[in-house]
Amino acid sequence: MNRKELGQRAEDLAGEYLKKAGLEIVERNYYIRGGELDIIALEGETVVFVEVRSKSSDCYGLPEETVSEKKQGFLYRAAEQYLIKNEWLEKNCRFDVVSVLFKDGKAEIKWYQDAFAQ
Question: What's the total number of domains in the chain?
C-alpha cells in the first residue's frame, strides 16, 4: 500500500469509527488553498474538525505526534473559513485527532477528543 492509499484507508477507518461513536459525518476532504480538513462531523450541536494521521510503523514515533503547531494553525484557519461559509459561527467547535497505526496487518485506532485548542 502506498502512502496515498494508506492515508485514504486511515480516513475510511476513522470515519467508520467516529460514526459508531455517534458522530454525524457532514463532510470529508474539505479542500482550501494549502490543504484540507480530513473529516468534519457533528456531535450534537458541536462541530468537530478531525485530523486523521496514519503511519505504517511506530519506529519513528506515533501518528498523533505528527500534528505540528504549523498544521494546527492551518486547521484553525480552514475551520474558520468552513464555519463562515456554512454560517455556523454560533456553533461550538473542537479539534480532534484520530491516529491510525497499521501494525502487523491490523489497524490500531486512537481518538483524541479536543486534542488542541486555539
Answer: 1
Q: What is the pLDDT of residue 118?
A: 64
Q: How far is CA 61 from the centre of its chain?
A: 18
Domain that holds residue 55: 3-116
With cell 456554512, the residue in question is: 86
Count of CB atoms situated within 10 Å of the CB of 42: 14
CB atoms within 10 A of CB 77: 14
Cell of 113: 477528543
Q: Which three cell numbers stand for residue 85?
A: 461559509
C-alpha cell at 112: 483524541
CATH of the domain at 91: 3.40.1350.10
Given this model, what pLDDT does residue 59 score?
A: 84
